[in-house]
């Protein structure tokens, strides 16, 4: 075929191709705001020429393919960076929460409470017989305990919230994996027919969203199948197969096709999951442990001084220890029982003074109870046996030492070199052994005059103006105490313990500073990742996203070509007419 | 370079977020007047602030302790100043009565006077500060000196306090006794006065003369205690002065660390406001532009 037929055919192809190009342009314009949409370009190509009348003639145009303007390298690195960004974003959010929990600018802050607690001991030292001073000191102690308890509770709540987020994250991940596995066969079949551009975008979006939850790697096969694995290589999607994750007792498990489950919790470093796990397993545990260490040290040190002293009154009622040795441990040497402070007990002794109803020391002097620490050392039963007497009965309830004076009799303590009273919780100020359990000794609550501002003299007398124990307590604020700091690492069950000798306040300040410093560096890491993600997003968008100006230009370009092709047809039509007219005349 | 519409929108959003974040920070500083509003604003500075805050709280506590100490010392000092006078009176009386020209009746009368002096001194030795006995060691609830009488005459004075003076803390590792071991302060003064009185009553000139040097010793001991109290008061004054100076410099340091330089903060706020406004207006202009307007 040749002649006018050829021209008409060329014009028809041109009309079709330009209209197709306009279709592509309109698809682009329509999707200008669709997230993750990749701009498509019609690739116009001249048709193969044919030999006509001894000449090689061009035969017009056709749309060879519709190109997806995408760069896999940029897309993958963008996904990885978004994964890092999501991790640091979540860490930052939780660091801000931790910061506000440990807010030190308010009057209710731990450091302010601590200062007031020391000051209350000063005031008691200034007026050791004053009841108001004792009541205030008791209240300050209770407020300090409560501040520790509140913080501890808030940290536990944070842990629960994190587990909820992680559980929800696992659900979301499984949903996304299923979506990707669904798209894989559809893309393979569409790709064989022409292009799967829009489905590729859709799948890419799912992978991007997935990498915001988890660090993943992807491999695209020739046929269009996408394999997804975790950052450490556990397959998540292959063809239409999904290997989903499971959240079980705080751990993330990977289910292979069989019944085997692998614990992959510690291998997840990226995405929101990576951020949440870092906060849950590394950041928050450090602060929780250090807060507990601080509370424990305050309880131990304050009680250690308190047990050396005596109040304005002696103990007149049944006194129950605050710490128990644990079930079945009554005959075990104290160092091997469940006592919270068992490690603090040393070989030594303490004195018990018993007073008759006239207030005279029974037996003319104290009963000295010796403690031997170590294997085969003093057990609770041994202790009970050496204390128990006609005027002061010693016994055990739930593994706790119980002392009961005869009617009208009373008792007091002095000179404990073994720290066993502190470890048992007898004649102590605080109870508990960590931030959550810290509280006030119930005996003091019942009678504030039992607060030990002074100490027994060698005759078993307590002068009301004796403030030696309170003065020892005020010195505690300046004295270095041996404590531990902790560092947690993912995948390590136990933290690294670092011994420090510092005052109680300085330990608290270091704790607070480390939260501030970590929050600061997390924010910087987030900013850094954000800059990179923004740059890469810009690069990706400049290549792959729609520019309306460009599309409008293209629209006019194709419109004019279309109009020209139409003109071509009418011209050929006129030419046909001219030819037909010649025949008639 | 090809710029996608998305890039333009993203860029505008990102810039507006950055500038409004800076504006919010600047505003927070101006409205709170503080440079450090969150732990992460300056962790190192904050730790210093916390240390200073605690030191300041401790200082005001020590100032309170010093106040308590001063009350105690003053109480003791005032009493001892009078005791000093009274001992001196007794001595002068003794000297007068040791004169050979004095009659037995006059000595009898002087004995009554000595009884009075003794009772006054005991009453001074039982001085209380805020309801607590200054001269009874740490047995601050026990009246330290008790007179026993035979007929109308005091025949002995018992000490019921203990030997540990009441002590306060005026600084790290610095405890100062502000109360007194009454026995150590008053020594044999009561017995010496009783001896003098007996000698006067018995018209025993030698006995009277023997009492004088003993009273001198008592006088000297009281003077010593008074000057010791004076020295402790000086210690308290010095400590208070040091604290007042430190207090000022710590407050200054704390303010330097945590308070915002208002001039700087406000000009920073103005600058961020301007940047924000500029970003807003340029964004509005860029967003409005499109080829569509010209087709």
Explain this structure.
The complex is a heterodimer of chains A (585) and B (295). With 585 residues, chain A is α+β, with helices and mostly antiparallel strands. Chain A contains twelve helices and 21 strands. In chain A, the strands form eight sheets. A four-stranded antiparallel sheet of chain A has the order 5-6-7-8. In chain A, strands 9-10-11 form a three-stranded antiparallel sheet. The model of chain A has no long low-confidence stretch (mean pLDDT 93). With 295 residues, chain B is mainly α. Chain B contains seven helices and six strands. Chain B has helices at 5-32, 43-97, 104-125, 182-186, 189-201, 205-258, 262-288, and strands spanning 128-129, 132-133, 145-150, 153-159, 167-171, 174-177. In chain B, the strands form three sheets. In chain B, strands 1-2 form a two-stranded antiparallel ribbon. In chain B, strands 3-4 form a two-stranded antiparallel sheet. Chain B has a two-stranded antiparallel ribbon with strand order 5-6. Chain B starts with a helix and ends in a 7-residue tail after the last helix. At the A-B interface, helix 2, helix 3, helix 10, helix 11 and helix 12 of A face helix 1, helix 2 and strand 5 of B.
Instruction: Supply the number of helical segments of chain B.
Output: 7
Find the biggest chain interface: A-B, 68 and 55 residues
Q: What percentage of the residues of chain B does DSSP assign to strands (E)? A: 5-15%
How many β-strand runs of chain B? 6
Read across the widest sheet of chain A, the strand sequence of neighbours is 5-6-7-8
Distance between the termini of chain B: 23 Å
Instruction: Determine the oligomeric state from the structure.
Output: heterodimer
Count of helical regions of chain A: 12
Largest sheet of chain A: 4 strands, antiparallel
């Amino acid at each position: 075929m040749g002649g006018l037929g050829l021209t008409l055919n060329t014009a028809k192809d041109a009309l079709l191709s330009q209209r197709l190009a306009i279709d592509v342009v309109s698809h682009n314009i329509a999707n200008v705001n669709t997230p993750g949409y990749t701009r498509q370009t019609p690739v116009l190509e001249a048709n193969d020429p044919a030999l006509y009348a001894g000449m090689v003639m061009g035969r017009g145009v056709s749309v060879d393919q519709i190109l997806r303007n995408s760069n896999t390298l940029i897309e993958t690195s963008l996904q990885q960076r978004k994964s890092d960004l999501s991790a640091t974003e979540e860490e930052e959010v939780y660091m801000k929460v931790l910061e506000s929990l440990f807010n030190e600018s308010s009057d209710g802050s731990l450091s302010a409470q601590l200062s007031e607690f020391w000051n209350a001991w000063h005031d008691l030292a200034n007026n050791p017989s004053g009841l108001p001073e004792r009541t205030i000191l008791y209240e300050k102690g209770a407020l300090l305990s409560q501040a520790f308890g509140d913080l501890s509770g808030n940290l536990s709540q944070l842990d629960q919230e994190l587990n909820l987020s992680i559980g929800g994250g696992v659900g979301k991940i499984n949903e996304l994996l299923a979506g990707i596995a669904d798209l894989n066969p559809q893309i393979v079949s569409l790709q064989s027919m022409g292009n799967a551009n829009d489905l590729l975008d859709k799948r890419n979006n799912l992978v991007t969203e997935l990498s915001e939850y988890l660090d993943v790697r992807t491999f695209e096969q020739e046929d269009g199948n996408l394999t997804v694995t975790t950052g450490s290589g556990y397959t998540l999607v292959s063809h239409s197969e999904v290997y989903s994750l499971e959240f079980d007792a705080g751990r993330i498990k990977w289910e292979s096709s069989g019944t085997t489950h692998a614990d992959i919790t510690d291998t997840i470093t990226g995405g929101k999951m990576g951020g949440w796990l870092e906060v849950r397993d590394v950041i928050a545990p450090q602060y929780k442990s250090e807060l507990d260490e601080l509370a424990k040290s305050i309880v131990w040190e304050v009680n250690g001084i308190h047990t050396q002293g005596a109040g304005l009154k002696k103990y007149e009622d049944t006194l129950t220890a605050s710490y128990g040795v644990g079930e079945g441990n009554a005959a075990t040497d104290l160092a091997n029982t469940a006592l919270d402070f068992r490690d603090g007990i040393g070989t030594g002794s303490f004195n018990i003074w018993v007073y008759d109803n006239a207030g005279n020391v029974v037996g003319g002097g104290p009963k000295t109870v010796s403690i031997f620490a170590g294997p085969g050392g003093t057990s609770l039963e041994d202790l009970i046996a050496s204390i128990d007497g006609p005027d002061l009965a010693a016994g055990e309830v739930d593994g706790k030492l119980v002392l009961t004076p005869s009617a009208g009799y009373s008792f007091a303590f002095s000179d404990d070199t073994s720290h066993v009273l502190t470890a048992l919780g007898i004649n102590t100020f605080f109870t508990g052994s960590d931030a959550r359990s810290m509280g006030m000794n119930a005996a003091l609550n019942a009678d504030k005059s039992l607060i030990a501002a002074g100490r027994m003299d060698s005759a078993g007398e307590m002068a009301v103006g004796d403030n030696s124990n309170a003065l020892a307590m005020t010195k505690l604020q300046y004295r270095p105490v041996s404590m531990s700091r902790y560092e947690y690492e993912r995948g390590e069950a136990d933290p690294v313990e670092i011994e420090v000798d510092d005052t109680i306040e300085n330990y608290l300040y270091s704790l607070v500073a480390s939260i501030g410093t970590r929050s600061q560096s997390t924010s910087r890491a987030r900013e850094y990742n954000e800059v990179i993600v923004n740059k890469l997003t810009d690069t990706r968008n400049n290549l792959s996203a729609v520019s309306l100006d460009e599309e409008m230009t293209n629209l006019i370009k194709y419109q004019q070509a279309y109009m020209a092709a139409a003109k071509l047809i009418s011209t050929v039509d006129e030419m046909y007419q001219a030819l037909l007219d010649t025949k008639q005349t | 370079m090809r710029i996608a519409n998305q890039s333009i929108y993203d860029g505008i959003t990102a810039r507006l977020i950055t500038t409004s974040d800076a504006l919010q920070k600047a505003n927070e500083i101006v409205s709170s007047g503080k440079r450090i509003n969150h732990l992460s604003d300056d962790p190192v500075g904050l730790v210093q602030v916390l240390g200073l805050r605690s030191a300041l709280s401790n200082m005001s506590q020590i100032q309170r302790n010093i106040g308590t100490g001063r009350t105690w010392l003053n109480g003791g000092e005032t009493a001892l100043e009078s005791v000093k006078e009274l001992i001196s009176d007794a001595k002068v009386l003794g000297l007068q009565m040791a004169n050979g020209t004095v009659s037995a009746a006059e000595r009898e009368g002087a004995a009554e006077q000595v009884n009075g002096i003794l009772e006054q001194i005991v009453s001074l030795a039982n001085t209380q500060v805020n309801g607590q006995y200054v001269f009874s060691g740490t047995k601050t609830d026990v009246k330290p000196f008790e007179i026993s009488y035979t007929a109308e005459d005091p025949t002995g004075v018992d000490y019921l306090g203990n030997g540990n003076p009441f002590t306060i803390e005026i600084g790290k590792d610095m405890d100062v006794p502000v109360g007194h071991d009454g026995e150590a302060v008053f020594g044999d003064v009561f017995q010496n006065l009783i001896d003098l009185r007996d000698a006067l009553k018995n018209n025993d000139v030698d006995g009277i003369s023997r009492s004088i040097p003993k009273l001198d010793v008592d006088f000297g001991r009281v003077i010593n205690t008074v000057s010791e109290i004076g020295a402790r008061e000086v210690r308290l004054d010095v400590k208070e002065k040091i604290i007042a100076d430190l207090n000022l410099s710590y407050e200054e340091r704390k303010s330097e660390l945590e308070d915002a330089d208002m001039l700087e903060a406000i000009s920073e706020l103005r600058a961020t406001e301007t940047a924000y406004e500029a970003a807003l207006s340029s964004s509005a202009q860029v967003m409005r532009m499109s080829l569509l307007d010209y087709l």
